[in-house]
Amino acid sequence: MANVANCKKCGALFLQTSKRDICDKCFEIQNKMVSEINSYVMMSPLETIPLDTILSRFDLSIDEFESLFNAGKFVRIGQKVTIKCAKCGNIVPIANKTNMLCASCARKLQNEI
């Protein structure tokens, strides 16, 4: 069943026929950006690329990136893009993280609970 909804990106009204919360135009723009990010990372001669570099280069917020990452849009680049663990500061691939923690800190935190 289709509903009328406001696009979370641009605010435009659109016919929501799936679980998607953005309009077709914003969805196309998002897919193009995802493709550009994947190409940028895969074509880079660097062994790893800090997530902050991608966020600033493509004008993305961490929440937007996390949402796309969790939706499986960056599977190919998961080992090449890195973050700094919020607890210990070690650099880890985004594919090996739990929220903003490395796997080791996430396990330690889980054991403390």
Task: Please give a structural write-up.
The protein has 113 residues and is of the alpha+beta class. It has 4 helices and 7 strands. The chain has one domain (3-112). The strands form 3 sheets. The protein has a 3-stranded mixed sheet with strand order 3-4-5. A two-stranded antiparallel ribbon has the order 1-2. It is globular. The mean pLDDT is 89.
Give a summary of the structure in a few sentences.
The chain has 113 residues and is of the alpha+beta class. It has helices at residues 24-43, 51-57, 62-70, 103-112, and strands at 3-6, 13-16, 49-50, 81-84, 91-93, 97-98, 101-102.
Question: N- to C-terminal separation?
Answer: 42 Å
Number of H- or I-type helical stretches: 4
The proportion of residues forming helix, as a percent range, comes to: 40-55%
Q: What's the order of the H and E elements?
A: EEHEHHEEEEH
Helix/strand structural class: alpha+beta
**Low-confidence blocks of residues:** none
Beta-strand share of residues: 15-25%
Radius of gyration: 17 Å
Q: Averaging pLDDT over every residue, what do you get?
A: 89
- In total, the number of domains comes to 1
Provide the spatial order of strands within the biggest beta sheet.
3-4-5
Q: How many runs of DSSP E, i.e. beta strands?
A: 7
Please state the oligomeric state of the protein chains shown.
Answer: single chain
User: What characterizes the major β-sheet?
Assistant: 3 strands, mixed
Shape: globular
Brief descriptors of the model:
113 residues; alpha+beta; three-stranded mixed beta sheet; two-stranded antiparallel sheet; single chain; globular
